[in-house]
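Reopening this ticket.

The earlier resolution said the output was attached, but the attachment link was broken on my side. Pasting everything inline this time so it's all in one place.
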Amino acid sequence: MPQWTNWAGNQAAQPRAVEHPNDVEELALLVKRAADAGQRVKAVGSGHSFTATAVTDGTLLYLDRLRGLRDVDTAMGLVTVQGGTHLHELNPLLAARGLAMTNLGDIDKQTISGAISTGTHGTGERLGGIATQVRGLELVIGDGSIVTCSETERPELFAAARVGVGALGIITAVTLQCEPAFTLVADERPMPVDEVMARYDEFAHDNDHFEFYWFPHTERAFVKRNNRLAAGESAPRLGRVREYVEDELMSNYAFDVLCRMTRRWPKLVHRVNRIAADQRPRTFAAPSYEVFVSPRRVRFVEMEYAVPREHAAAAFQAIRGAIDKEQLDVSFPVEARVVAADDIALSTASGRESAYFAIHMYRGAEFERYFRAVEAAMRELGGRPHWGKMHYRTADDLRQVYPRFDEFLAQRDAVDPRRVFTNDYLNRVLGA
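Inline output:
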């Protein structure tokens, strides 16, 4: 029996069958056959989620043959892309046509369907996550039918399926609202973390994209501010040698070695973090998607919570407090971002401006005490867990933080009444 594992190695499955459909019609037939036989089906992209959302004991569908662009309307900026296309493939395809996505996360290994299904978001006070750029979807639903939805066609399904957590069907194509390609100027520098939190609203308001990384057991943060290059302005590109040394050699290979050391000798964490926090400032310009995305070769597990924007300071202090109270040795930085409110039923930013805080632990290190302590604090602040990252929440308490939770479940009943796409994870977070 074949075995599947995710990128982080913390989720595994032994599906009954593994399929690579050649087109949407073949995929739909596979779903119909499974549904008629009372079996389950899950689609898998790059396996970059830390949750068990893709795990199945039924049929596992790879969308690796459903990749590339279907249609491009350069004048309108509308692009229809097949669901199995990875973001690292999509971005150069768009650039070649003079287009770009408005906002991206800092990892581009996901498929477009997986990224929107789990609520991948990026950062920017005036910008929503990737799902807010979606203008239409094509899905195969629970009976094997191929359906489309948008703001004007099946709008109730569209409101739910843009962040569908894999529960509403298999996304086979996504229509995105893109814009003319643009250049970002990146300013990255270490700062005292207390200053960063004191100026949090200022930084969020005054920059197109703002985020910071705090190194636990230190008083330092690494602040990233990205802004569009204005007409008539210029900024240098980052030299190839420096880019390799800082982004590959130091941030990946050397960091991996240090993580291995601190996993074996935890008391080295404090010293290592002080070294890691003392990074050189840099300012450079590059095409937007090259600035948004950072190479992530060190494997880890992650939890991320979205809290109401006004609770950002309280959330950050709660994470610091949890590390101190539990006497934890944490080698990975805490990442903080901000995103605009949106109107998607199960988006973590649904109906409210949100501050995001992501915590990580090196793969193989003990993480549960850290994650549970932080989650308890985030729940007190009305936090919502990222759908693609680890958490311990259930449908009963998630309903309390999602006013449109039952609206989503109604769409699930409509398009997958036999629960062809469910698994144990979805039964936990959405109900059986």
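Reporter confirms the inline version is readable. The chain has a mean pLDDT of 96. The domain at 4-61 is CATH 3.30.43.10 (Uridine Diphospho-n-acetylenolpyruvylglucosamine Reductase; domain 2).
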